[in-house]
Amino acid sequence: MNRRSLLGAAAATHRRPAWSPESPLRVQVVVFDGVEEMDYTGPFEIFSIAARMSSGAATVTLAGGGEPGEITGYYGSRFTVTARLDPAAADLIVVPGGGYGNKTGPGIWGEIAKGVIPAALRAAPRPGLTISSLCTGAFLLAEAGLLTGRRCTTHHLTTAEIAERGGVITNARVVDDGDVVTASAVTSGIDLALHLVRRELGADVAVRIENLIGFERRGTVWRA
């Protein structure tokens, strides 16, 4: 079975389980040196609120591509991660972007050169796992071969490059192709997270989060 068939089979078998405190939706938000701060903080906060509002039917973890330790974001913020990306222990992975304009510095190009995150993502697909990206995080999915022949989106300035890497660019703010979900530029990470909260935990939780943070989802969500 080729990768396209494998991913298609995973998409076809994706059904929203009844997530509960006993069996929560396990979310891992990937972080790395050079990660765009808003790319990861938006989804991380949305899923953290969702965990509270669903009485523990979701968990969220910041997961580094390498060993646990200090991470320096694109704009200089520093924080410590204690967990490592572990797709086998996740139901949903969120991959942010960052560092696109610096080919030799930290960010997506540095992570592609290291190869650790792309390798983990390449081996990750299985029924029940959703892998998502926002902004230039799509490059890490493309490097892993996860966007080949798949509907997707990314930052509007980089769509041609993702198309060259096999992605089928779709003009939408969020593109839900089943087990692969992508979003466009930086702030779309909030829309991505709210869409996935609605899909996995229900509309009531998503609407309560929107009201709490004073945010209204915008743009088109394309769904397979």
From TrEMBL:
Could you tell me which SUPFAM superfamilies the record lists for this protein?
Class I glutamine amidotransferase-like (SSF52317)
Any one Pfam family match given in the protein's UniProt record, by short name: DJ-1_PfpI
Tell me where in this chain the DJ-1/PfpI domain is found.
Answer: 26-198
Task: Look up the coiled coil feature and give its residue ranges.
Answer: none
What protein am I looking at?
A: Transcriptional regulator GlxA family with amidase domain
Q: Which organism is it from?
A: Catenuloplanes atrovinosus
